[in-house]
Design a protein that fits this description.
Length: 179
C-alpha cells in the first residue's frame, strides 16, 4: 500500500515523502546484500506488488526527467533471492526460507526494468514464477518491456552460473546455503 501511495504522491504532488519512508524501512529490514530480516517468504510479500509499482514509478520519474532512487539494500534483494534459491523437485528453483513464511518461484521480470539488466528476464524465463501465481497488477501492464532473445537465452544464464562458483554454495547474511 505504501508503494502505491508513493506513486500517487509523486504523480499528483511531485513530492517523495512516502518514498523516503519506504527507503528508510528497506534500509532497516534488508541487509546490505539483499537478505530480508524476516526471511525470503516475507520479502516475497513485498515483491508481489511493490516491484511492479516501482517499475511504474521508474517511468513516472523518467517522464519528469527524474531518477527513481531506491534503497541499495532493497535493490540487492533480487540477487539475494536468486542466489539463495535451490531446486525443489518439479517445483523448480525455490528461495530458501529460514522463517515460517512460504516461498515460491519469484517473478524476476520487474527487476529487469528496475535494474536495467535483461539477465532478470532470463532468470524469469528459466526459473521464474509459475503462470498460476500472477499478481493483481500484471493485467494492468506493469511492468511493460520486451526481452531481447540473445539476452534471455538459457545459455547466457548457464554461462553466468558457470562463472559464479558461489552461486549454489556460499554464506550470505550469516546463512549458509548448500544445495
Amino acid at each position: 500500500a505504501y508503494v502505491s501511495l508513493a506513486l500517487y504522491e509523486f504523480v499528483h504532488y511531485g513530492t517523495q515523502e512516502m518514498l523516503a519512508k519506504l527507503n528508510h524501512a528497506f534500509d532497516i529490514n534488508y541487509g546490505f546484500n539483499g537478505g530480508y530480516s524476516e526471511g525470503a517468504g516475507y520479502s516475497q510479500y513485498i515483491w508481489d506488488e511493490a516491484t511492479y509499482i516501482f517499475a511504474a514509478m521508474k517511468d513516472a520519474y523518467a517522464s519528469k526527467s527524474w531518477t527513481l532512487n531506491l534503497s541499495h539494500n532493497f535493490m540487492q534483494s533480487a540477487e539475494h533471492m536468486f542466489n539463495t534459491s535451490r531446486p525443489v523437485g518439479a517445483l523448480g528453483n525455490i528461495p530458501v526460507e529460514i522463517d515460517d513464511g512460504v516461498t515460491y518461484k519469484p517473478d524476476y521480470r520487474p527487476w529487469a526494468k528496475l535494474k536495467n539488466d535483461t539477465k532478470y528476464l532470463a532468470m524469469h524465463q528459466n526459473y521464474g514464477m509459475d503462470n498460476n501465481k500472477i499478481t493483481t497488477l500484471v493485467p494492468f501492464g506493469v511492468p511493460n518491456f520486451t526481452c531481447n532473445t540473445n539476452e534471455c537465452s538459457l545459455a547466457n544464464l548457464q554461462d553466468r552460473m558457470g562463472r559464479d562458483p558461489y552461486l549454489w554454495t556460499y554464506f550470505e547474511d550469516g546463512v549458509g546455503v548448500i544445495s
